[in-house]
Design a protein that fits this description.
By secondary structure, this protein is α+β, with helices and mostly antiparallel strands. It has 6 helices and 11 strands. Strands 1, 2, 3, 4, 5, 6 and 7 form a 7-stranded antiparallel sheet that branches. A 4-stranded antiparallel sheet has the order 8-9-10-11, covered by helices on one side.
């Protein structure tokens, strides 16, 4: 992985793989998913329960934090002002330790000013938590009065399949529309995190997987200029 000097670096590192993980989670919990109708959380035990046409899904949930429009701040779960059991906030504490290692103030202060709208901040910090904790999907929910609470989930059904160049072309494109700053960093970080074969030469990055190759070309400003998926025939 490349050097980390800012929160933006971390957000770029996790941008593409987060899109892929959230797409997988949405198959379960999103609109039309088998567990999409209702949810509730028990923070005493660290369990999120989702209900739908397939019955009930219970999944281990770890509180990342909450974004509140009143004070205009994000509060990390590790500050634990509500006295939740340590395992419920342990994933958030790992983000604090990561932030301390790289000197990232946003990850080490118990409470920090919002960088955008509450939902945006909750999603971004949850994405960081998922990345730091080895690759977990996240879930954000309305806690009332505009406050958005964020969790990362240990849900086996949301695990990712083997890397795919066909999927990579789609999720890279979606991630870039979400405000990635350093396109090349985001693409190469995704390749490394997902276990693609990776080649770099000049203005090209080539991802290799069992279903073929994806050639990503960058312009003079380092932005993705084109993607060419060369998929293997069955």
């Amino acid at each position: 992985m490349q050097p980390i000097t800012s929160l933006t670096d971390v957000l770029d590192d996790g941008a593409v793989v987060s899109v892929e993980r959230q797409r997988r989670l949405a198959e379960l919990l999103g609109e039309g998913g088998p567990y999409a109708d209702r949810w509730d959380v028990d923070l005493a035990t660290g369990v999120l329960r989702f209900g739908g046409r397939a019955g009930t899904l219970e999944t281990p949930a770890h509180l990342v934090g909450s974004a509140a429009p009143g004070p205009g701040t994000w509060m990390w779960g590790w500050s634990n002002v509500n006295g939740f059991p340590p395992p419920v906030v342990a994933r958030a504490a790992a983000v604090r330790d990561f932030g301390a290692r790289f000197g990232l103030a946003e990850l080490t202060a118990p409470e920090t000013p919002l960088r955008g709208e509450p939902r945006q901040d909750a999603v971004e910090y949850a994405m960081v938590a998922g990345l730091v904790n080895g690759g977990l999907p996240h879930y954000t929910a309305d806690a009332g009065n505009g406050t958005v609470v964020a969790f990362v989930l240990d849900e086996p059904q949301a695990s990712l399949p083997a890397p795919s160049c066909a999927t990579a072309a789609t999720v890279i494109g979606e991630a870039l529309m979400g405000g990635v700053v350093n396109h090349r960093r985001a693409v190469t970080a995704y390749a490394e995190l997902r276990g693609f074969g990776l080649e770099q030469a000049g203005d090209e990055v080539v991802l290799q997987a069992g279903d073929g190759r994806l050639v990503v070309r960058f312009d003079g400003l380092g932005r993705v200029a084109s993607m060419d998926a060369r998929l293997a025939k069955d």
